[in-house]
Amino acid sequence: xxxxxxxxxxxxxxxxxxxxxxxxxxxxxxxxxxxxxxxxxxxxxxxxxxxxxxxxxxxxxxxxxxxxxxxxxxxxxxxxxxxxxxxxxxxxxxxxxxxxxxxxxxxxxxxxxxxxxxxxxxxxxxxxxxxxxxxxxxxxxxxxxxxxxxxxxxxxxxxxxxxxxxxxxxxxxxxxxxxxxxxxxxxxxxxxxxxxxxxxxxxxxxxxxxxxxxxxxxxxxxxxxxxxxxxxxxxxxxxxxxxxxxxxxxxxxxxxxxxxxxxxxxxxxxxxxxxxxxxxxxx
Length: 283
Ligand SMILES: O=P(O)(O)O[C@H]1[C@H](O)[C@@H](O)[C@H](O)[C@H](O)[C@@H]1O
Ligand SMILES: [Mg+2]
Known about the structure:
seven-stranded mixed β-sheet; magnesium; Fructose-1,6-Bisphosphatase, Chain A, domain 1; Inositol_monoP_metal-BS; alpha+beta; five-stranded mixed β-sheet; binds magnesium ion; binds D-MYO-inositol-4-phosphate
């Protein structure tokens, strides 16, 4: 049953586009900002509304009960964040909420679909740029229906690397993040960048605009769709310690080839995070 999930893939593209239109419209109105885990972890009514629209449409299309859902805002309200073998949608309704709040024009809808814990397809709609990135396992990666490919640069000195700062502002963590960035910048590389959305960053790796993107502290909904897009564009993903990529681990290096990725890994100062699927400890 080679094309078992084609309908779901096509539908995800449609849903992401519609969700992006809602975000664009909401960006023209007054945005009320609230916080989640800390004062720099922002959320808006649009994040919640768009997640409801996406999950509602998917349930209507595929039937309640047959598919599982992991959505950023549902998890923050206490829904489980466990990836099982069942068909599971992994959704970030607004990746780049801080950008959205500030009018910084990189905001993405990220929708991934996993079966047997493997990501079958991913859709990232960069809604302010109106760019639709998508990939299905074994079928290549696309931006607006044009095939995309990672860069062929092997010399780290000729690379651009994306790194983000995340939302953990403890001085020890910030120190490690800046120390890592300083070491990479001084290799030297051509430049460091960051769009403020992990999903978009991964698409920038996939289309060859940058050579690598790494982050500790991201969540499965930030990177699940991007992961299959990077792989299908010829890139690779690893854990920040060089081990296998684990979508629930909150750590990831994505890049165009092993030479670049291994060189980045050498410089990363790792700090602790709690896995997305860790049991919730009641206080
Ligand atoms: O919370 P949203 O969905 O906007 O996503 C996160 C980004 O994707 C990260 O790369 C980024 O570093 C931030 O942690 C940001 O929170
Ligand atoms: Mg996100």
